[in-house]
Design a protein that fits this description.
4 helices; Neuraminidase; elongated; about 15% helix; 2 domains; single chain; four-stranded antiparallel β-sheet; mainly beta; five-stranded mixed β-sheet; Rossmann fold
């Protein structure tokens, strides 16, 4: 009895150890993207979704900037694909096999060099082949890297249609665009809650001002995705804009003017009260929390042109981050905490007065440029893993959302046909 129990414990612990093993350490300085091969089998007579699921899964893995797909010309012939040595000769390091049935997809992953099967799990076939694909990709990514993927994340954005700007949502790769609101108004600056259940934004509404009549006022709202309803959290006369959630989801920092110079305030969601946060001379806008919730970065004109500042939320000590460029705005702290993305304008008086996306170290040791000479590029937003960004760009005679890896590769357009702005990536 005791011996049987010890054997059971041994295999249980061994199984848990194996399942937690990381095969690809994407945080390592020596990280090199492995070559993976993907192919599918189907036990049904007709499997019309196979190619769609296979191509979407491959696209997901390439988009992660972690994997390199084995080119089709290097794929072994069908009758040879059961021989691991043939895959090794092809150059593949990992083999991904999708085996389809009516309601399931058996996902298998093999380490080609060792012939070890390192993943076998069945995934439900969803109503949408896209959901099925993202579930498969996420499973593979988590098993090999030990980290969460971006494949099931969403992007909130504002798009213009029939003269109005409303709230929209799409998949991380630009697919399945969905309109969430239908106001005859203008929405700006959407921001996801940490739990992905709500989106905060500012919306213009007509308001009566004594002695001035009806004028547009920018009010702050939270939209609940499940109920599809909004609730106002700030509607004071003047500016209420640029919301951003604290990492714990308990507070929202935003800009409020109260008819005076715009400064930063914080709204407590539990107490339903607003308190001052940053009160500088000039204009303070566009706050963003560090992932540990200890710091805030924002744009301020207190010394003249807009510059970026970081503030210790405990001591209230402010440190200036930028000293170059004419205009610095839209700072967003990376989820990894080591980088801040922002939009910067070099020369507003030149022939190409364009904003570009930059990356700055919070310790101000270096600044990198991600875009150049491609229209105005603004409103950067990070993926949850800090490896990718989305932003708006005017390079195609309008405004669209673009995707780029943080190492300045993989840039691609996500939207078209609508004027779209202010993307915000879900956590």
């Amino acid at each position: 009895m005791c011996r049987s129990f010890l054997i059971f414990v041994f295999f249980t612990v061994s199984s848990l150890y194996a399942s937690s093993r990381v095969y690809i350490n994407i945080g390592s300085p020596e990280f090199k993207r492995p070559i993976v091969a993907l192919y599918s089998k189907c036990s049904e007579v007709i499997c019309p979704e196979i190619k769609d699921i296979e191509s979407t899964t491959a696209s997901d893995l390439v988009s992660s900037n972690v994997f390199v797909m084995l080119p089709n010309k290097m794929m072994p012939d069908l009758e040879q694909r059961g021989d691991m040595m043939v895959w090794k000769i092809s150059g593949a390091e990992y083999l991904l096999l999708l085996d389809f049935t009516n309601s399931k997809v058996a996902v298998k992953v093999f380490n080609v060099n060792t012939s070890e099967e390192i993943l076998y799990e069945k995934v439900d076939r969803e109503d949408s082949y896209i959901d099925t694909s993202h579930n498969i990709s996420d499973l593979i990514f988590r098993r090999l890297t030990g980290e969460k993927s971006i494949f099931k994340s969403k992007i909130a954005l504002v798009c213009k249609k029939n003269g109005y700007k409303n709230l929209y949502m799409m998949d991380y790769d630009g697919k399945r665009m969905k309109q969430l609101t239908s106001f005859k108004s203008v929405i700006v600056s959407p921001a996801w809650s940490p739990d992905g259940k709500e989106i905060a934004y500012a919306r213009y509404e007509m308001k009566y001002y004594r002695g001035q009549g009806r004028m547009a006022n920018q009010n702050l709202y939270i939209y609940n995705l499940r109920s599809q309803r909004e609730r106002m959290i700030s509607g004071t006369t003047g500016q209420n804009s640029g919301p951003v959630w604290s990492p714990d989801g308990k507070q929202i920092a935003f800009t409020m003017s109260k008819g005076e110079s715009p400064n930063l305030y914080v709204y407590d969601l539990d107490k339903e009260e607003t308190k001052p946060l940053v009160q500088n001379p000039g204009i303070d806008v566009e706050p963003s929390y560090s992932p540990d919730g200890k710091w805030l970065v924002f744009s301020s004109s207190k010394t003249g042109n807009p510059e970026l500042y970081k503030m210790d939320l405990q001591t209230k000590q402010q440190t200036r981050l930028t000293y170059t460029r004419y205009y610095n705005s839209s700072p967003v702290w990376s989820p990894t905490g080591d980088t801040i993305a922002f939009a910067g304008l070099d020369n507003p008086f030149g022939k190409k007065a364009y904003f570009d996306i930059f990356l700055i170290d919070p310790s101000v040791t270096k600044i990198e440029r991600l875009t150049i000479d491609s229209g105005s590029n603004e409103d950067p937003s990070w993926s949850s893993d800090g490896r990718h960004l989305v932003y708006s760009s005017t390079r195609n005679k309008g405004s669209d959302i673009y995707f780029i890896n943080s190492d300045d590769t993989g840039e691609r357009r996500l939207t078209k046909d609508l004027m779209c702005y202010s993307p915000d990536w879900s956590k």
